[in-house]
Amino acid sequence: MSESHPDLKDPPRTERAVSTVKARGGMARKGNGKHPSKQSYSMCALQKRCADDFEMPEASVLSSDNSTWLVLNDIGAFTVPSDAELETKQHVVVYDSTTSSLKDKNSMALSCAKLMWEMGSKNPIKIIKGGYQEFSALYPYLRTQKIIYMPSELDAIATYPVEIIPGFLYVATFKQSQDHNIIKDLNVKGNVIVAKETDSMQVILIHLPAESRLGIDNFSPHSTILGRAEKRVNQVFTVPVEDSGNEDLYSYFSDIVAFIDDHRMPDGHTVLLSSILGISRSVTVAIAYCMWSKKLALKDAYNHVKKCKENMQPTRGFIEQLSRWEEKLFGSTVTDITEPNY
């Protein structure tokens, strides 16, 4: 991105052999059903932490593959287990306790990452910024005491929505938006559902048994909560638009960004932007909100969301509508959408 905004922190940068990243949405979690992209995005977490860390009750970060633990040999050097199969891993993530910078010369995580690269990883190595301590504070629901999983247990690991604005805005599939565990863990108070296919569906937990609602029984299409400036705001905003470039999503942009902003509270409320697959309509809305809230040109907002959600595929028609939105916000068109990137 051409500008630096406090609420739009860069997600993993894959152009580096070793990168320090802040852990964010899209991480694995225990759940029911297999995530459709699991096989192409398997994660190998290579971890090395000092002995004191093993006194913590949460032993590691939950991932969608069994983690590999590095060990120190007799001369104090890291060794890679023979079954690590680095060359087959699309994502290799390293973390220690507290590493927060690539300039930390004493970082065990950085030493491990360099070794992973030298030992044959075909993809960039990522280091979780802030290590286990910061990750577990930001995402306590992704901690686990379990180290080894059976294949059937790995198949049952699902994913969380992708974080667009840290601690506030997430892009989700419709199925994720109906998951009461996600609603609870992310403290979701608002849901923008951009999908005409859901017209006949009752939204958000209405039909769940009371014991499964986990204290969020009032989260329904007709419920309201106290939002910004003591204003009563709805919790669900439905946009009946199909995933077609001929559909008019532009006309909803102003109401959508107002709904999202009404939920921007200091106590950690979050908002989901959901569509059936979470790659086109909900992504378009995410870009529109970033443009509006951070005064970003379409190209900058697009690039930010693309880094968070690499498989996003907004239709050409939606890109053209975002270009109109850019002209409305800034008085002129800034982004050349004829470029191949769009």
TrEMBL record:
Matching InterPro entries, A to Z? Answer: Dual-sp_phosphatase_cat-dom, Prot-tyrosine_phosphatase-like, Rhodanese-like_dom_sf, STY_interacting-like, TYR_PHOSPHATASE_DUAL_dom
Instruction: List, alphabetically, the SUPFAM superfamilies matched.
Output: (Phosphotyrosine protein) phosphatases II, Rhodanese/Cell cycle control phosphatase
Please provide, in alphabetical order, the Gene Ontology terms of the cellular component aspect for this entry. Answer: mitochondrion
Biased-composition ranges, Basic and acidic residues, are 1-16
Q: Where is this region: Disordered?
A: 1-39
Which residue ranges run through the membrane?
none
| PROSITE patterns (UniProt xref) | TYR_PHOSPHATASE_DUAL (PS50054)
Superkingdom of origin: Eukaryota
Q: Name one GO molecular function term.
A: protein phosphatase inhibitor activity
Where in this chain does the record put each Tyrosine-protein phosphatase domain? Answer: 160-331
Its BP terms in the Gene Ontology are: negative regulation of stress granule assembly; positive regulation of intrinsic apoptotic signaling pathway
**Which Gene3D superfamilies would you find in this protein's record?**
Protein tyrosine phosphatase superfamily, Rhodanese-like domain
Q: What is the protein's name according to its record?
A: Serine/threonine/tyrosine-interacting-like protein 1
The organism encoding this protein is Acropora cervicornis
